[in-house]
Design a protein that fits this description.
Elements lengths: L6 H25 L9 E3 L1 H12 L15 E3 L17 E2 L6 E2 L3 H35 L4
Antiparallel strand pairs: 1-2, 3-4
Helix pairs in contact: 1-2, 1-3
């Protein structure tokens, strides 16, 4: 179904949803930093967004767009089967906590910050798009 606002707003909305989901995944990693044996997860935003764009442009895909099909990069092959090749870092013991898992707080906080900045950027782009539409509606009939 075609949107009355065009594809840009729909794509930005999808990007915001994916950024919010990635935020949840990263937050779960941070919340489980002291859980022994926990394996950090991450969502490959580019891969999911590329898949969505291919689907929207008419390319048939055998992948479902449901949340359970979002590809996750994993640091341990037994935890989640990734769709893309992920480098398997070894499990390390945190010097500060003494907990054997592979969650690096600094790395997760950097990912979270980057994801939040990308979310805010996409939100600003969406706001600008709506401002342009509002201007076109309110100023379009003036001479």
């Amino acid at each position: 179904m075609k949107s009355i606002f065009g594809p840009a707003i729909e794509v930005m909305g999808r990007a915001l949803n994916l950024r919010a989901k990635r935020n949840s995944v990263i937050s779960a990693n941070i919340a489980n930093i002291d859980t022994p044996g926990y394996k950090a997860k991450d969502m490959n935003f580019k891969e999911v967004m590329d898949s969505y764009l291919e689907e929207k442009m008419g390319v048939k895909s055998d992948k479902s767009s449901s949340e359970k099909d979002i590809p996750l990069e994993t640091t341990h092959p037994g935890h989640i089967t990734p769709r893309s090749k992920a480098v398997e870092p070894s499990v390390k013991i945190s010097k500060e906590r003494g907990v054997p898992n592979n969650v690096d707080l600094d790395e997760e906080m950097a990912k979270l910050s980057e994801n939040n900045i990308q979310y805010q950027l996409t939100m600003q782009m969406l706001i600008k798009k709506f401002e342009i539409l509002r201007t076109a509606i309110t100023e379009g009939g003036k001479q």
